[in-house]
Structure formats: structure tokens, C-alpha cells
Amino acid sequence: MEQLDVTEGFDVHEYRHGLKLINEDRQTMHLENRDGFACPACEKPFEDLFVTEKRTNTFGDPASPFCIVRTDQEVLLLTH
């Protein structure tokens, strides 16, 4: 199982083959993990990935465990 590498930031193009874009706007992306990538925080497979460059975001109840990873440019929220 390949783990997302975020040591030098997150480049969605490196993982496009296994992530399905659900929606995107100027500063956020919501992706579905279709290839079983592992979470960079806990090393377990994740279901969805939310990537944002915004300083603030509001989320509903994810109803499942989640991990948060911060890079220099963005924040990644991964639901399991």
C-alpha cells in the first residue's frame, strides 16, 4: 500500500491515478481514495481527502475517525 508523501508538500498530480475528484474550487479539493493509499499521519488506508489552502474551514460531523496533516502550503483532512 502506497503512502501519501507530504514531506515536500502535497502534489495531487502524483496520486491522480488513484484519487477521484469529487469537487474543487479555488482553494479546496475533495477527493475519494480509490486506490487504497495510506494516510501520512497514521499509515492506515483512508476513504476521503479534503485539501485546503484556506485559513478557516467548517466541517459537519464526519461520523468516522479522521487525521489532519499540515504542509507549508495547505491542510489535509483524511477521513477513515
Could you characterize what this model shows?
The structure is a single chain. By secondary structure, the protein is an all-beta fold. It has one domain. It contains no helices and 5 strands. The protein has strands spanning 19-24, 28-33, 48-52, 66-70, 75-79. A 5-stranded antiparallel beta sheet has the order 1-2-3-5-4, with no helix packed on it. The two termini are 15 Å apart. The model has no long low-confidence stretch (mean pLDDT 93).
Write the layout of secondary structure elements.
Elements: E1 19-24, E2 28-33, E3 48-52, E4 66-70, E5 75-79
Antiparallel strand pairs: 1-2, 2-3, 3-5, 4-5
Task: List the secondary-structure elements in sequence, H or E.
Answer: EEEEE
| Low-pLDDT regions | none
Please state the overall shape, judged from the principal axes of the Cα atoms: globular
* Structural class computed from helices and strand pairing: mainly beta
Organism: Halovenus rubra
Protein name: Flagella cluster protein
Pfam family, one: DUF7385
Keywords: Cell projection, Cilium, Flagellum
